[in-house]
C-alpha cells in the first residue's frame, strides 16, 4: 500500500507546471500566470498567491508538503472541484481565499484540519444555501469570515455553528429569500459586520429585519451595502438597529430620497448614533429635511459623506435649515462630492466642529475664503483642517485664513497647485502638522512655521532645504530632487526622516551624525553609487550598527552604478579589496613584491644561483660553438687558428707555481740534460694564461670561452685554494669548469693536483669537475725533486696527444 501511495503521488505530479516567483521572504506570487493546475512551488513557502488563473480543480496531492504555508489565495479562478482532503496538510494556514470561483457547494471536510485558520473568504461562488451542514465547525480561531454572493438564497440556523467570535463578518445576500431567525446570532463578540441586502430591503423587509436583529449590537459597527431606500416602508428594518441602539452606521452604495431621509431621522431619533458615514450616495431630492428638525441627534459625533451625487443640484436648497443636524458633530467630512463652496452662514452652524475634511472637491482660493468666513475665526474649536486635492494656488491666502484658528494643530493642503512659497507667512502658533505634499514647490522659505513637529513636502520639485525648524520631529521629502541629505543642524529634534525616490547618490555616517536625535530613516529607491565606503556604511546600518534604523527595508536600497552592480541590493554587494583599497593594495603589493624580490636575491646569492645562471649561459654558448670548435680541431688547415697549445685554469693563489714552474718548463724548455733520454731539444708549447692573454674589458666567461676555443687542450691546476677561496673568486677563476662538456667534442681536460685533493673536497656545484676526477686520470705534482722530470714528461705527452719524447 505504501509503494502504491508513493507511485500515485509521483504519478500525480507528472505534467504539473512549476512557479519560481518566490521572494526572499518566501512569498510566492503565482497570480495571473495562466495556470490550469496548481503549480509546484517550494515547500518552504509561507504565502502562495494563485489568484486570477484558470485552475478548475485542487486535488488531494496538489498542496501536500506545505505544512508551513500561512496564506493561500485561489481568488478569481474557475474552481469547480476541491478534493475533501486537499487542505489537510495545511496545518499552519491562517488565511484562505476561495472567492470568485464556481463552487456550487461548501464541503465541511475542506476545513476540518485547518485549526489555525483566522481568515476565510468564500464570496461570490454559486452555492445557494449555507447552514445545512456545520461548514465552519472546528474553526475556533476564525476571526474574519466572508460568504455569500448572487446565488445565495438561503441561510439556515446552523450557518455559523462552531464560530464563537469574529472581528469581521461579511455577508452578501442581495438575493436572499429564506432566513432562519438566529442563524447569524451565534457570534459574540462581533467586531464589525457588513451586509449586502438589496433584495430583502425591496421585497421582504421582515426578512431584512430578522437579519439586522441578529447582528445588531451597540458597539458593533454596521455597514449596509447596495440599498435602494425610497418611501417610508423601506426604512422599517432600521427599527431593529434603533431598538438595539446601534451607534456606528455606514451606508455604502446608497440611493435615497428626501422623504426616506426624513423618515430615517425619525426612526433613529434619540438613538445615540455616534458615527454616521455615507459612501457613494445618490440623492434624488432637494435637501428639504427640515421636517425632522424636532428630532434629537445630539449624540452624533462624526458625519462623513463621500462621493455624493445630487441628481438635481440646481434645486438643492441651502443647509441653513439643518441646524438641528449640523450643530452637534465634532467631525465632518465632505469628500469627493464636487463641492465648490460652503457658505459662511452654513459653516457657522458647525459650532462644535473640531475636524473638517473637504478634500477632493472643487474649492478655489476664493471659495475657501468664503467657507472659512474670510479667516474671522468662526470655527474657533477647529483642530484639523483638510482641503487637499482642491484647486488652491496661493499659499499666503490659506495661511492668512487659518491664522485666527487658535486651536488648529493639523493642516493638510496637499495635492494642490502651489508653485511658490512666499518669504513669510502668518500661521497659528498651535500648528504642529503641515502637509504640502504633491504640489509644485521648487524652493523652501522661512514661510514655514517654526512650531511644526511634522512636515510633509513629498512629491514636489525641491532640491534643497535650508530652513531651520528646531521643533520638527518628522520630515517627509520623498519624490523630490534632493542630491544629498538636508543639513542635520537645522533639525535639532528630528527623529524620523523620509527621503525616498529622490536623486541621492550616497550618504555616510557623518551625514547622519549631524542629526542629534534621528532614529528612523527611509532613504530607499534612490540612484545610489555603490562606492566601497557607502556599501560598507549601509551594510553596517542595515545590521543595526549605530543609532539610526532603516525602516523601509533592505530591498529598497539598490545600486544604480557602477554598471556591473546595477540592480543589485546594496546589502548583498561584496566588493573586493582590490576595488575598495586600490592605493593600499598597490602599495602593499609593491612592498611585498620588493620584499620577496630582495629575499629571493639574498636566497639566490646564498645558494650561489647567480653563479649557476652564469655558468648555464656559458654552457649554452659553449654548446652553440661546439661545432665550430670540432671543425677547428679536426681540420688540419685550421691549425693556424688554434693559437695556444693549452689553456691553463688556476687559482690566483697558485700563480707563483704556474709562473715559476709551469710556464718556464713548457714555454722555455732547456736542452736535454746529462740524464736525458732525448738528446734533441724540446719544442716549446704556447700556454694561454688569464693574467697575460685575456682581453681587458670583456666578461671573464667570454674570455675563457675564447681562450678554450683557441686552445687545443685545457689544463686545470687543482689545489686547496679551490675549496677555500670566496664564492665571488670562484665565479672569476673557476666558472669555466661548467663550460666543459663531453658532448662538445673536445679532448678531455688535463687535471694537475698541486697537493692531495679528493673529489669529495670539491664543492658539489662543480659537478663536471667531480665527474672528471672520477673518470679521468690526473697528474700529481711531486714534492720530490727527482720525480718531477717524469711529471713534466707526462704532461708534455698529454698536451701533445700522447706523443712520446725521443
UniProtKB/TrEMBL annotation:
InterPro entries: Leu-rich_rpt, Leu-rich_rpt_typical-subtyp, LRR_dom_sf, TIR_dom, Toll-like_receptor, Toll_tir_struct_dom_sf
Membrane topology category: Single-pass type I membrane protein
Domain TIR: from-to ranges: 642-799
Signal peptide per UniProt: 1-15
Chief location of this protein within or outside the cell: membrane
Cellular location(s): Membrane
Transmembrane segments: 583-605
Disulfide cysteine pairs (residue numbers): 22-28, 344-373, 425-447
Keyword annotations of the record: Disulfide bond, Glycoprotein, Immunity, Inflammatory response, Innate immunity, Leucine-rich repeat, Membrane, Receptor, Repeat, Signal, Transmembrane, Transmembrane helix
GO molecular function, one term: triacyl lipopeptide binding
Matching SUPFAM superfamilies: L domain-like, Toll/Interleukin receptor TIR domain
GO cellular component terms, semicolon-separated: plasma membrane; receptor complex
GO annotation, biological process: inflammatory response; innate immune response; toll-like receptor signaling pathway
Domain of life, source organism: Eukaryota
Family as reported in the entry's similarity comment: Belongs to the Toll-like receptor family.
Task performed by this protein: Cooperates with LY96 to mediate the innate immune response to bacterial lipoproteins and other microbial cell wall components. Cooperates with TLR1 or TLR6 to mediate the innate immune response to bacterial lipoproteins or lipopeptides. Acts via MYD88 and TRAF6, leading to NF-kappa-B activation, cytokine secretion and the inflammatory response.
Protein name (Swiss-Prot/TrEMBL): Toll-like receptor 2
Organism, as annotated: Lates calcarifer
